[in-house]
Amino acid sequence: MSLAVMETSPRSAATDPEDVLRAWQELDVPDGWRAEIIDPGKISLLSPPSNPHNFIVELLQEALFPARPAGTGLYQTVGLWIASIGRLFIPDLTVVPRSVIRTTKAPTAAEHALVVVEVTSRDNADDDRVKKLAGYARGMVPLYLLVDAWDPSGPSVTLYENPRSGGYDLAHRVPFGRPITLPAPFDVEIDTTEFPPGADW
């Protein structure tokens, strides 16, 4: 995915996050693109992902769908708002109670998510590794699954657990090809053998 950034106001530490959120809500985003608030005062537009990226997301969706808790849905386009830091991310996949999606206006408060999944792209991998990692922790998302085909140490999958004080207490990393297990309420082992490494994209 390529990334374009638009400033919603002159760069200022005083930019009101609620103003940026309102600008996000009023955007008319082209089909397949995503608009996120990754940095303060800016709305980032992300182009549609590559086919290998979509392939990994589809495999993850297939694994998570039957394992999701009763009364929850698996979504690809839900905006998660982290009010404490004025950030809004749209993960590649997230599991959220259906009642929240049915009864609230977009975006959704991040703390409602049971798990978020991000699959890195070459152009914005650091956002998923650093900014979104910290953001999801601040948003008290209990599980963050990061699929990183561009990991400098080799293609990997990392599960972050137990958010606290802007970070996660636990991180379990496996290379592509080895399984990784999501704990309760999912209790599912995810097979990564078919995940294509970034060198193949």
TrEMBL record:
Keywords: Endonuclease, Hydrolase, Nuclease. Residues 27-189 form the Putative restriction endonuclease domain. InterPro entries: Nuclease_put_TT1808, Restrct_endonuc-II-like, Uma2. It holds the Pfam family Uma2. The keyword DNA-binding does not apply. It comes from the Bacteria. The keyword Hydrolase applies. One of its GO terms (molecular function) is endonuclease activity. This is Uma2 family endonuclease.
